[in-house]
Amino acid sequence: MEEPTAYAHHHQPGLPVRSGIPEHGRIPKYYAVKARISGLLDELDELGEGRPLPTERDLAEQYEVSRETVRQALRELLLEGRLRRSGRGTVAAGPKLEQPLSLASYTEGVRRQGRTPGRHLIGLERFACPAAVAPGIGAEPGEPVWHLERVLLADEERVGLESTYLRVARAPRLDVDFQPDSSFYGYLHDSLGISFGDADEKLETVLATPREALLIGTPPALPMLLIHRFSRDRDGRPLERVRSLYRGDRFSFTTHLRPE
Prior knowledge:
- This protein is of the alpha+beta class and 260 residues long.
- The protein is 30% helix and 32% strand.
- The strands form three sheets. Strands 4-5-6-9-8-7 form a six-stranded antiparallel β-sheet. Strands 1-2 form a two-stranded antiparallel sheet.
- Helix 3 (56-63) crosses helix 4.
């Protein structure tokens, strides 16, 4: 494949970013193929999510490269969430879910995009609070705490894993009254009259542990977005500690910034 063709396809004059093309202008062969497939995916997205991609053999013949070059391009597009596996083939993955960095719940964020949120309960345990967890939830070491762990779903697709710590004193009947597939924030507000005031969050990229990858149903090498949240109620008292793990290929996060 001629490099100028790939460059012209993937670079739009006037844009401040050169779309990954090195300054010397020499493009790795797999990256040129990736650019061509990205253009094809843009066309498939217009036709709808789940549209099948041509086979590796067909793509290799069309772009006059080896199948290994095509595989390398496809691997990157799978990691980026542009593609997903379906049976023996590869299909367009559609747009990522956009989750706001706010005190809105996961349920609200997914519903705003026309998707159906859901959760699958992994476990709800009650145990003595470890010293490392106590400050973040306003507990004394050794007092009873809840640990709620659930797989996050969007249209029945597993997209994340959520782990929540909360003092038993704040929700004494959590194991009796709470429906595990519903919104935890909705339960706190509607059943217990607890409203969120503010929270501190930290976002980082990680690789899932073997256990996490198994629960979410992803390869261990898939990048994940990890959010640690420490929430407080309207009176400023520590309320919960949450560790949320999201698939990097299915999620992006948004926020609105204001001047100080």
